[in-house]
C-alpha cells in the first residue's frame, strides 16, 4: 500500500526546479537578451579597430560584386545595407564610449564636423532622431528601389519620389532645428578612435575581481593567498607603469614620452586653432537672404529632378537633366562667399562641388555621352576589371539611386 506513495514522492522530487517557480524561470529567460546585447556592446567597444576592418572588408566585397547575379542583385545590396546599418549602430556605441571617457586622449579636440554634429545630437533629441532617419533612408534607398522595381516601373518611380521627398523633408527639418545653419554631410558624428582607457576599463574590472579572489584566498589559505594577491597587484602596477610614471614626491603621474620619430605630429596635436576654441554653434553661421535660398534650392534639387525624370518618357531627354543641374548651379551661385563663411561651411560646399561630377552619370548625360565612353573603356580592360565594370553599368542604367548623392 505504501508503494504508490513512495512512487509519488520519488516523482515529485525528481521534477525540474523550474516547474516549481515558473515566474523566476521567465525572468531569467527575459534577462538573457539584454545581457547578450551588453556583451556585444562591450566587445565592439574593446575591438573597434578590428570591427572597422571587418566592416570595410564586407563593403569592399559588395563593391566588387554589385550585380554579379543579374536576377539577384538585391542580395548584394541587402548585405551592403545591412553592413551600413550595423556600422551606424557601432558608431552610436563608440560615440557613447568616447563621451563617457575622461582620459587625455578623449580630451583632444575632435574635427569641426564632429564637434558641430555632436553638439546638436546631444542638445536636441529631435535633431538626433531626424538625422538618424535621414541616415537610415540613405543607407537603404537603393535596396528599396530594387524591391520596388520588381513590381513595375510605375511603382518604382513612386517609391523613388517618396524617398526623395522624405530626404528633403528631413533636411528641411534639420535646417529649421539648427536655426537656418547649412547642412553637413553626414548629419551624424563620424567614427573616432576609442581611447585606450575605455578599452581597458573592463580589463581593470577583471583585475579587481582577481584581487578580490586573492583576498578571499588569503583569508582561507593564509600566507600563500597573500603572496598571490601581492603578485597580482605588482603585475597590475607594472602594466600601469608601462603607460605613465608616478613621481614619488608629488604623487602626480608623468605621461610617457612621445615617439622620437613623430615629434612634429606630437606637437601639432597640441596646437589649438581658432575653430578649436569656438563654440560649436559658431562653426556654422545662420543663413539669411540669398544664402538661405541657396541652401533650400540645394535641398530641393534632387526632388525636382526625380519628378521631372519620372514624367519624361524618353531616357535620353535632356530636359530633366538640365532642370536638376540648373538648380544645383543656381544654389552654388547664391551661396554666401563673404568673409563670414567658416571653414566648415567651405568644406561642405567643396564636398558638394565634387558631388556635381555624378551628374555625368545621370539621365541624358549618361545615355548620350558617358555610356559610350564607359563601354569603350571596358572593352580595353582585362576581363576581370571589365566584368566588374559591366556589373556597375547594369546598376547605372537601371537604378536611379546608384548614382544619386
Automatic annotation (TrEMBL):
Matching Pfam families, A to Z? Pex16
Q: For bias kind Acidic residues, which ranges apply?
A: 199-218
Where is the major localization of this protein? membrane
Low complexity: compositionally biased ranges? 12-22
Compartment(s) where it occurs, according to its Swiss-Prot or TrEMBL record: Peroxisome membrane
Q: Where is the composition biased (Basic and acidic residues)?
A: 189-198
- Going by the entry's taxonomy, the superkingdom of the source organism is recorded as Eukaryota
UniProt keyword annotation of Cell inner membrane present: no
**Keyword terms, alphabetized:** Peroxisome, Peroxisome biogenesis
Q: What GO CC terms are in its UniProt record?
A: peroxisomal membrane
Q: Does the keyword Transmembrane apply?
A: no
Q: Name one GO biological process term.
A: peroxisome organization
Chain spans, region Disordered: 1-22, 187-238
Q: Cross-referenced PANTHER family, in alphabetical order?
A: PEROXISOMAL MEMBRANE PROTEIN PEX16
Family membership noted in the UniProt record: Belongs to the peroxin-16 family.
Q: What is this protein called?
A: Peroxisomal membrane protein PEX16
Protein's organism: Phaeoacremonium minimum (strain UCR-PA7) (Esca disease fungus)
Amino acid at each position: 500500500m505504501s508503494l504508490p506513495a513512495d512512487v509519488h514522492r520519488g516523482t515529485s522530487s525528481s521534477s525540474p526546479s523550474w516547474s516549481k517557480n515558473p515566474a523566476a524561470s521567465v525572468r531569467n529567460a527575459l534577462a538573457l537578451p539584454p545581457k547578450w546585447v551588453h556583451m556585444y556592446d562591450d566587445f565592439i567597444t574593446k575591438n573597434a579597430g578590428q570591427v572597422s576592418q571587418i566592416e570595410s572588408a564586407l563593403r569592399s566585397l559588395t563593391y566588387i560584386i554589385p550585380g554579379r547575379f543579374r536576377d539577384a542583385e538585391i542580395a548584394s545590396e541587402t548585405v551592403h545595407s545591412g553592413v551600413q546599418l550595423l556600422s551606424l549602430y557601432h558608431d552610436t556605441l563608440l560615440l557613447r564610449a568616447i563621451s563617457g571617457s575622461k582620459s587625455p586622449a578623449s580630451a583632444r579636440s575632435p574635427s569641426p564636423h564632429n564637434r558641430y554634429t555632436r553638439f546638436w545630437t546631444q542638445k536636441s533629441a529631435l535633431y538626433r532622431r531626424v538625422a538618424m532617419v535621414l541616415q537610415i533612408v540613405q543607407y537603404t534607398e537603393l535596396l528599396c528601389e530594387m524591391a520596388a522595381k520588381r513590381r513595375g516601373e510605375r511603382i518604382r518611380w513612386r517609391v523613388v519620389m517618396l524617398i526623395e521627398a522624405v530626404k528633403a523633408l528631413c533636411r528641411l527639418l534639420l535646417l529649421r532645428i539648427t536655426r537656418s545653419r547649412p547642412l553637413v554631410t553626414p548629419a551624424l558624428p563620424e567614427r573616432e578612435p576609442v581611447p585606450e582607457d575605455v578599452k581597458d576599463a573592463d580589463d581593470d574590472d577583471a583585475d579587481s575581481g582577481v584581487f578580490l579572489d586573492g583576498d578571499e584566498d588569503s583569508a582561507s589559505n593564509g600566507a600563500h593567498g597573500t603572496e598571490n594577491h601581492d603578485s597580482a597587484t605588482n603585475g597590475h602596477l607594472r602594466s600601469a607603469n608601462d603607460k605613465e610614471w608616478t613621481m614619488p614626491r608629488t604623487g602626480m603621474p608623468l605621461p610617457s614620452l612621445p615617439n622620437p620619430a613623430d615629434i612634429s605630429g606630437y606637437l601639432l596635436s597640441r596646437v589649438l586653432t581658432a575653430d578649436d576654441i569656438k563654440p560649436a554653434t559658431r562653426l556654422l553661421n545662420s543663413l539669411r537672404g540669398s544664402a538661405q535660398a541657396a541652401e533650400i534650392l540645394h535641398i530641393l534639387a534632387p526632388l525636382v529632378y526625380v519628378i521631372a525624370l519620372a514624367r519624361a518618357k524618353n531616357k535620353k531627354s535632356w530636359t530633366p537633366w538640365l532642370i536638376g543641374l540648373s538648380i544645383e548651379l543656381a544654389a552654388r551661385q547664391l551661396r554666401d562667399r563673404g568673409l563670414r563663411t567658416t571653414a566648415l561651411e567651405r568644406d561642405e560646399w567643396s564636398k558638394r562641388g565634387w558631388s556635381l561630377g555624378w551628374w555625368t552619370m545621370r539621365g541624358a548625360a549618361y545615355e548620350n555621352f558617358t555610356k559610350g565612353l564607359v563601354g569603350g573603356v571596358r572593352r580595353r580592360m582585362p576581363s576581370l576589371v571589365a566584368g566588374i565594370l559591366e556589373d556597375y553599368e547594369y546598376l547605372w542604367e537601371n537604378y536611379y539611386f546608384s548614382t544619386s548623392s
